[in-house]
Design brief:
17 strands, 33% helix, Nucleotidyltransferase, domain 5
Length: 334
């Protein structure tokens, strides 16, 4: 029996997982579960309260709702404990007990060469996750990761955009052109140059520490000046999920204010890239990742006369996961 293929794109803001047509999405927040967790948890499909190696953890939205100690790990080392826990949790939502898994996962472009082997080794072996809430409440999922393939972010998104799941080429013009992918995540902006035929140009690819958290941090500082104490994770959660913030009983409207910080972030990314590569080399730019659509307008206004700027507002944050599956299938097809 062949291994089940599970793709997990573990970002600083969200974890995206897919396998056999099923998708799971949850926020990358982890909090230690209280020793006595007496809250009666209602059957909410998205709630994640798991036990792993004898410890309990609240994950995602449940961590936001029931803990003040939830964190979003910002270590550049993808083998950090929180990332391992998030990926294993994602696998446990898509695996059946006793299954063997081939894991496809992600790493920032600049770190791929130095971290991919350590990351693959970190996931290898037998794992056991007990679910105490959510869609698998009361179930123990054990599985063995027999092989792991680590792909660079951004390059994954290119293949997820150009190809469909059946390996049909959706955009032949992009496949025959020089393309720049700007994969804007929470922590980094991966920039990947692709030559015609889908071949990466490594010396014109890398990662910038200019992710969406920069925009959130700017707005967070302004809100704190007005007396609203809020963590960056809580602010990002409110923006992404369009939740109203309150300063006491007074609502705080941030939808229009955040745009100026998006524009500043886009300007910083543009200036940094302009010193590293020539934009007129490319016929197309693809804006992907959770922040790709938010920054799309700025790049279209700056570069629309030189190259065509694409974005994927509905599937942008899924393109890395989709592309990992495409790369793997293409490699097996030969």
């Amino acid at each position: 029996m062949s291994n089940k293929i599970i793709v997990v794109d573990s970002g600083r803001q969200f974890v995206k997982a897919l396998s056999e047509g099923k998708r799971r999405l949850f926020q990358s927040v982890v909090a230690p579960a209280p020793d006595k967790f007496n809250l009666e948890i209602k059957d909410k499909e998205g709630d994640l309260f798991i036990q792993h190696q004898g410890e309990g953890f609240l994950i995602g939205d449940l961590a936001f709702r029931q803990s003040v100690s939830g964190i979003q790990e910002r270590s550049s080392d993808k083998t950090n404990r929180q990332n391992l826990l998030l990926v294993l949790t994602a696998c446990s939502l898509l695996a059946n007990p006793g299954e063997k898994i081939t894991l496809l996962t992600n790493c920032p472009a600049r770190d791929w060469g130095t971290q991919r082997e350590r990351l693959a080794e970190a996931f290898k072996g037998y794992h056991r996750v007990e679910h105490k809430a959510g869609e698998r409440k009361g179930r123990v999922i054990d599985f063995t990761i027999s092989e792991t393939f680590v792909f660079p972010e951004g390059e994954m998104a290119y293949f997820g955009y150009v190809y469909d799941q059946f390996l049909n080429v959706r955009f032949p013009d992009l496949l025959s052109s020089n393309v720049l992918i700007l994969d804007v995540g929470d922590q980094t902006c991966n920039y990947i140059s692709m030559n015609p035929g889908g071949e990466p140009f490594d010396t014109l690819s890398g990662s910038l520490d200019l992710g969406m958290f920069r925009a959130y941090a700017g707005l967070q500082a302004r809100l704190e000046e007005r007396g609203l104490e809020i963590t960056q994770g809580e602010l990002a959660n409110a923006i992404i999920n369009k939740r109203t913030l309150y300063n006491g009983k007074h609502p705080v409207y941030i939808g229009t204010e955040i745009q100026s910080y998006y524009n500043q972030l886009a300007s910083d990314i543009y200036d940094r890239l302009n010193s590293r590569l020539r934009f007129n080399r490319y016929q197309y730019i693809i804006m992907t990742g959770g922040g790709g659509y938010s920054l799309h307008r700025y790049f279209k206004e700056r570069l629309g006369g030189r190259c065509e700027v694409h974005s994927a507002p509905e599937s942008g944050q899924w393109l890395n996961a989709m592309g990992a599956e495409v790369i793997y299938k293409l490699s097996k097809r030969g």
